[in-house]
Amino acid sequence: MPTDLITSERFLLHETGSHPERPARLVAILQRLRAAELLGNRAVLEPEPASAETVALIHDPAYIASVEAFARSGGGWIDPDTFVCPASFDVALLAVGAAVAAVDRVLDGRSERAFALVRPPGHHAEPNRAMGFCLFNNIAVAAQHALSHRGLARVAILDWDVHHGNGTQAAFYETDSVLFVSIHQWPLYPGTGRADETGRGRGLGYTVNVPLPPGTGNDRYLDVFDRVIGPRLAQYRPELLLVSAGFDAHRDDPLAMMEVTEEGFAGMAARARRWAEALCGGRLALVLEGGYNLSALAASVEATLRALDDSTDDGMAR
User: Over the Cα atoms of the chain, what is R_g?
Assistant: First the structure.
C-alpha cells in the first residue's frame, strides 16, 4: 500500500522572503514527486488546522496567544532566525493539524504509513518559545495527541534532521511515555543534543542523542541506525513510530556539513519502515522538518517515499 501524503498549497502562505525556510521548498518537493509520477497512485490529503486546544497539548496557552497576536499585528522576526508573516499563525496551526492527521490515519488503520509534508517545521519549538524557523512543535503535539486522546502508552520519535530537536526533547525529557532518539551533527545549532542528555526523573534513559562530527556520511549513519537506534527501539517496543524527517544532513545542504545522500535517506526510511512493521503493526508517520538545498531536498524526499512504498526493500540500502 503506498504511503499517504498529507499536504496543502496553504503551506505556501507562510511567506518568508529569501529565508532558507521558504515556500519554494515545498514547491520543489511536489514538482519532483509529480514528475516522478509518485502522486497519482496514492492518497494526497488536505489537512485541517489544529485547534489552539490541541496545540496546547505541548505549548503554553499564553505562548500560543502571543504567536497569534504577533502574526495578526503584521509579524516580523519572532526570534533571530524565525520570520512570521500575517498568515503564519494560521499556517502553523495547519502544520500541526497535518501531523495529527498523519497519526490519526495510521492509528485508525486507514493508512499503513503517512508523511506530512508541512511548513513551517517544528522540532526546535519549545513549549513557550519559537526557535530555528519553528513556531509550534508539530511532531511533539502529534505524539502527545496519540497519548492523551488515542489511548497509547508508548510512542517513539526518531529525529534524523541534521540539527538536534531541542524542542521535542524538552517536551518529553521527564517522561517514559515517549522515547526520543536524535541523530545529528555536533557541534551545530542549537547547541543541545550531547550524548549525556538522556532524560530526567521518570524520563531518565528515554532520550537518546547520537551526535556525529561534520563530514559523516551514509555508512556511519546507517551503522548507528543498526547498532544503536534499532536495538533501543526494539527494547522500548513503541505502539507508534514517528519520524522528524529533516533532509539537511544531505551533502549539498547549505546549513550543515554532513555527507549523506538521497541513498542514505532511503536506507534510513527503509529501516524505519522495517522497525514499525516489526514493533508496532507498521504504524509509521513522518513529518517534514529541514532541508534547504531545493534539488537535494526534493530528491531525498522522493528516495524516502520510494523506500517507504517498496515492500521488497530489505532495509539494507547503503
Answer: 17
